Amino acid sequence: MHEMSLMTSVLETADETARKSGAKSITRISLTVGVMSDVLSDALEFAFEVLSPESPYADGAELVITQVTPRSRCQVCGLEFDHDRFHRSCPSCQALATELLAGRELFIESIEVENGD
Amino acid sequence: MEIKLSEPILEYNDRLAEENRALLAEKKVYMLDLMASPGAGKTSTILATIDALREQFSIAVIEGDIASDVDAQKIKAIGLPAVQINTGGGCHLEAAMIARALEALDLDGLDLIIVENVGNLVCPTDFDLGENAKVMILSVPEGDDKTLKYPGIFEVSQAVVLNKIDTLPVFNFDCRRFEDSVQALNHRAPIFPISALTKEGLDSWTSWLAKEVSGVVG
Questions:
Q1: What residue in A sits closest to B4 (Cα-Cα)?
Q2: Closest Cα to residue B181, out of B162, B206, B195?
Q3: For A10-69, how does the pLDDT look when each residue is reduced to its tens digit (9 = 90+)?
Q4: Domain boundaries along the sequence of chain A
Q5: Alpha-carbon distances of B106 from B46, B58, B217, rounded to whole Å
Q6: What is the CATH number of domain B12-212?
Q7: Which residue of B has its CA nearest to A35?
Q8: Which residues 90-109 of A are in CB contact (within 8 Å) with B?
Q9: Domain ranges across chain B
Q10: Which residues contact B89 (CB under 8 A, 6 or more apart)?
């Protein structure tokens, strides 16, 4: 994957949001990452360590990553079920026709900022 | 103070992709994002596809490569417009690069743009370019287990082309196992076994694409 470029994008968004809100610094960045996105938390954390000291606001901030377990609905029998990255067929009727409901998220959920005053 | 964002990390790319999509829809141009590993036969499949469809549609090609313009030269040699994008080390194309390439093409005179993405089975998967469809090519020598090793690209593709079927006699490639595993990842995607070299199977692939393009061009 391309966690370095993803983190560059995260920091740009976070810095821009902090600047607009008149904050002094960012103390925490919270991300939501679905398991099906193939984005590695370890690689995101490494990218954050390397890139955040260059950020005007996020140097010293904490990175929180929430992983989302994949969930699908069977289009044959209607069952909703959690599953891992690689096995998405219906555990009840074995159908392959399933629809992914959650697990491909790649979101900046929120940032926590400290104000100047 | 907490600031809620709930913003896609690739929001910037996604926004530019939507702009590309809107521009192409306005001009009634269909854009195909063709993805595969290096050497799977992207350029030869594009050349064979052009050969089959150039009477019916006005076609241009956007070539994405880390370096060189050898692919764009091959397209220009058969008399079609081609734009080369060099990513300079980048492992995939992004919507901003496509936006610049679209500026270099006469969209009013086009029906179909084929984008040849950088050879890679991983990164192009996540980047919306504003295309109408993503299609991937796997070639027989790569092996029937690539569905298991690179599931993401099979999941996002609207169709899967299996190229180099003329080499099936010399490779231990189980077509049935491949088709079953594609189905397990993406039950909607049709699979087109072809040989860009001998043209075997090419008709069903180009007919599918022609129908897709006609739906947009009218």
A1: A110
A2: B162
A3: 999 999 999 999 999 999 999 999 999 889 999 999 999 999 999 999 999 999 999 999
A4: 3-69+103-115
A5: 20, 11, 15
A6: 3.40.50.300
A7: B152
A8: 96-98, 106-109
A9: 12-212
A10: B66
CA distance B2 to chain A (A): 4
Put simply, the answer to whether B92 touches A2 (Cβ < 8 Å) is yes
> B122, A38: Cβ pair inside 8 Å?
yes
Residue showing tokens 């809100």? A21
Rounded to whole angstroms, what are the CA distances from B116 to A47, B13, B145? 29, 18, 23
Do A38 and B123 lie within an 8 Å CB cutoff?
Answer: no
pLDDT of residue B218: 82
- CATH, domain range A3-69+103-115: 3.30.2320.50
Amino acid at B211: K
Give the Cα separation of B70 and B188 in Å (integer). 34
- pTM listed for this prediction: 0.88
- Listed by number, the residues of chain B in 15-44 with a beta carbon closer than 8 Å to a beta carbon of chain A are none
The ipTM assigned to this model is 0.87
- Chain B nearest-CA residue for A116: B1
Give residue A117's pLDDT band: very low, low, confident or very high (50, 70, 90): low
Report how far residue B59's alpha carbon sits from residue B199's, in angstroms, rounded to the nearest whole number. Answer: 19
- What's the CA gap between B102 and B128, in Å, rounded? 15
| 8 Å CB contact between B202 and B179 | no
